[in-house]
Design brief:
Blueprint (H helix, E strand, L loop, with lengths): L2 H9 L12 H4 L14 E3 L9 E9 L3 E7 L7 E4 L9 E3 L2 E8 L2 E5 L2 E5 L4 E4 L5 E4 L5 E8 L1 H9 L5 H12 L7 E6 L4 H18 L4 H19 E3 L3 H21 L6 H8 L3 H12 L3 H19 L4 H7 L5 H12 L3 H11 L1
Parallel strand pairs: 1-5
Antiparallel strand pairs: 2-3, 2-11, 3-4, 6-9, 6-11, 7-8, 7-10, 9-12, 12-13
Helix pairs in contact: 3-4, 3-6, 4-7, 5-6
Length: 355
């Protein structure tokens, strides 16, 4: 069953029952709160007890003017329904928690920090707790899953050092350590094939929230860690120019470390598999950071490593050439001479004389 169908099944599970009230925990939460005044700003509290750290709000807008919704976890199934006029806006608000939503179908409209955005299927948005925003409802059918995540849970996920570690730390910094900036991040998949893995994971999260037993907090924490790992490695996310520059430095350092670790057999295909970027992206990134192409940068790292091995080991020149990834001795000699104006043997002798 697809995530879309699974979500709709949960929403409409209780529709056939009469007089099913919204559970007390969510009675004052405000599943849909139309704008009462453009000058009023609300703050949504986290609706669950202190020992709970995650909930999911499921929306289905249909038939041009109806919203059907439910929330997990819940002590019993319920289906909230309300009609609206196209163009209705919810009250401008922020949260006492992080809001994280995923669009399953249709176009979803939000106004965030004075700018209106349209989100499409497969896209995420992560909104900081201080970020003012409001929903804009229209007649287009759409289905969205909202997750409410406490700061404690998000910090725990970041502390797990999901790979790539620095990228996960960067996301944590962007959303939790700069609260005054009222930030949000949008995510789009780099390739369509990652959507299925993501939706399978989100469906597992919803399943655990619907079970809501003693193991649910632990399992959900692990599943949300996987979600953020995928977001950090397989999705493009929006950043300011300054943040993008810092992110590129982080990625460049990750890239360099990985190349150095696999110098003797590295390939551009290995980089795309590890970091989930297109080949052309690495050339652009390296050009900005170093002024070199991938081939030029790889050659520089290999020759630097060869120079170090010539200085610090007694390995033969053939062994060193193989270790740094050159299996053609003649080619290794040629590019080494071009860089150092001497042969590897002469370079070793000069370095030993200096020592």
């Amino acid at each position: 069953m697809s995530l879309l169908q699974y979500v709709k099944n949960i929403i409409y599970k209780a529709k056939g029952f009469d007089n099913v009230r919204i559970p007390q925990a969510y009675d004052s939460f405000g599943i849909l709160m139309p704008e009462a005044s453009s000058s009023v700003q609300g703050i949504r509290p986290f609706p669950l007890p202190e020992d709970e750290h995650l909930f999911a709000l499921l929306w289905n807008i249909h038939d041009g003017h109806l919203l059907s919704a439910t929330i997990l976890p819940t002590p019993y199934p319920f289906c909230y329904e309300r009609s609206f006029l196209s163009g209705t806006r919810t009250q401008l608000h922020s949260h006492e928690y992080l809001e994280f939503f995923y669009v399953l179908e249709g176009e979803y409209h939000q106004k965030i920090l004075e700018t209106e955005y349209i989100f499409h299927p497969g896209e995420f948005c992560l909104i900081d707790k201080n970020c003012l925003h409001q929903e804009i409802l229209d007649e287009n059918e759409c289905t969205i899953v909202f997750f409410g995540i406490t700061n404690a849970m998000f910090t725990s996920i970041s502390d797990n050092h999901t790979a790539p570690e620095d990228i996960a730390s960067f996301l944590h910094m962007a959303l939790l350590e700069q609260k005054a900036l009222q930030q949000f991040l949008t995510f789009r998949p780099r390739e369509t094939h990652v959507i299925q893995d993501m939706e399978d994971t989100l469906r597992s999260v919803l399943y655990e929230l619907s079970r809501h037993d003693i193991a649910t907090p632990i399992i959900c924490s692990g599943l949300m860690t996987r979600v953020f790992q995928m977001l950090g490695s397989q999705y493009e996310f929006s950043l300011s120019k300054k943040q993008r520059q810092r992110m590129n430095v982080i990625l460049f350092n990750q890239l360099t470390d990985f190349i150095k670790l696999h110098l003797n057999h590295i390939s551009i295909q290995m980089l795309t598999q590890e970091f989930h970027f297109y080949e052309d992206y690495f050339n652009r990134l390296l050009k900005v950071q170093t002024g070199m192409t991938y081939i030029e940068y790889l050659q520089m790292l290999r020759l630097e490593r060869a120079e170090l091995l010539l200085t610090e080991t007694n390995n033969t020149i053939e062994q060193i050439a193989e270790e740094v990834g050159y299996h053609n001795k003649g080619y290794f000699y040629r590019i080494f001479i071009e860089r150092n104006n001497c042969t590897p043997a002469q370079y070793r002798k000069k370095r030993q004389e200096r020592l």
